[in-house]
Amino acid sequence: MGNQRHSGRVVVVTGAASGIGRATATRFAAEGARVVGCDVDTEGLAATLGIIQESGQQAQIVTGDVAAQSDIDRIVAALPGGRIDVLANVAGTMDYFLPVDEMDDATWDRVMGVNLTGVMRLCRAVLPAMRDAGHGAIVNVASIGALTGSTAGTAYVTSKHGLIGLTRSIAYLYAEDGIRCNAVCPGGVETNIGRTATPAVSWAYRRIEKAFATQVRIAQPDEIAALISWLSGDEASNVNGAVVTADGGWSA
Ligand SMILES: NC(=O)c1ccc[n+]([C@@H]2O[C@H](COP(=O)([O-])OP(=O)(O)OC[C@H]3O[C@@H](n4cnc5c(N)ncnc54)[C@H](O)[C@@H]3O)[C@@H](O)[C@H]2O)c1
């Protein structure tokens, strides 16, 4: 049966169709949680549900875009009994490694919408229920790109730096409500994010590649999911506003 640290809890996981989000949804389900998995990718979500069901657990899935308020409303409407114990904001998107002077507004708005504004909106939507309950845990998946400017384009780096600010603001303002909010900063992880990571400007990517060359190892998604689960659990009861690097020593 394994660790049942999230037994009975309602856990929302965004980006649950792939990579770190899928690993997080399946881990929480295995640890006893009632998972509500969300993603824009309906097929991938169904595959995640299949993995959870094959292991003998149940989950709910909601197809939705975290950048759209109407979809966030549907995610919140799907919460069993309106209850939420944990929110894992995992969904994220890349920016073609664009530098500022090559930035188009559509890329900027899309990346900020998914990686930052969507996270704020989902937090905004669930915090009232967490405050009423007197407890809750939020984990935001940032990136090593939240700590340095060298590993992605400007929109991604800016969105992930902003996510650290959002994390710390929530951690401080809601601590007295029994709510904790932490961020995880992975380095390279073997996922499908490369599909949205095609370099568009060769001179900028050549400079970014220099930072990639110092990477120590590529992690598996479950290594990040394990950290998200721990940060959401009671063993991390005094961990609030933390920015936890999980990059195998890359930034060290
Ligand atoms: N893989 C890495 O090397 C790495 C490194 C650092 C940080 N991250 C972060 O980890 C998180 C998860 O990414 P991953 O590596 O698992 O990539 P992934 O592409 O495998 O999974 C990301 C998921 O997010 C979903 N998604 C994208 N836009 C969405 C939207 N608007 N609404 C709902 N879902 C949406 C995608 O459909 C996909 O299923 C992201 O926030 C990413 O920035 C990844």
Low-confidence stretches: none
Order of helices and strands: EHEHEHEHEHEHHE
Task: Supply Rg.
Answer: 17 Å
Number of domains: 1
Tally of strands: 7
Strand order, sheet with most strands: 3-2-1-4-5-6-7
Largest sheet: 7 strands, parallel
Oligomer: single chain
Report the average pLDDT across residues: 97
Q: Can you tell me the overall shape?
A: globular
Query: Which hetero compounds are present in the coordinates?
Result: nicotinamide-adenine-dinucleotide
Strand content of the residues, in percent? 15-25%
What is the rounded distance between the termini? Answer: 36 Å
In CATH, the topology is named: Rossmann fold
Counting DSSP H or I runs of 4 or more residues, the number of helices is 7
Fraction in helix: 40-55%
Q: Examine the secondary-structure arrangement and name the CATH architecture.
A: 3-Layer(aba) Sandwich
CATH superfamily: NAD(P)-binding Rossmann-like Domain
Indicate the structural class.
Answer: alpha/beta
- CATH class placement: Alpha Beta
Write up what this structure looks like:
The protein is of the alpha/beta class. It has a single domain, classed as NAD(P)-binding Rossmann-like Domain (Rossmann fold, 3-Layer(aba) Sandwich). It has helices at 19-30, 42-54, 69-77, 105-133, 154-174, 202-212, 221-232, and strands at residues 10-14, 34-39, 59-63, 86-89, 136-141, 179-186, 243-246. A 7-stranded parallel beta sheet has the order 3-2-1-4-5-6-7, sandwiched between helices. Helix 1 links the parallel strand 1 and strand 2 (34-39). Helix 3 runs parallel beside helix 4. The protein is globular. It starts with 9 loop residues before the first strand and ends in a 6-residue tail after the last strand. 48% of the residues are buried. The mean pLDDT is 97. Bound molecules: nicotinamide-adenine-dinucleotide. The site of nicotinamide-adenine-dinucleotide (NAD) has 27 residues, from helix 1.
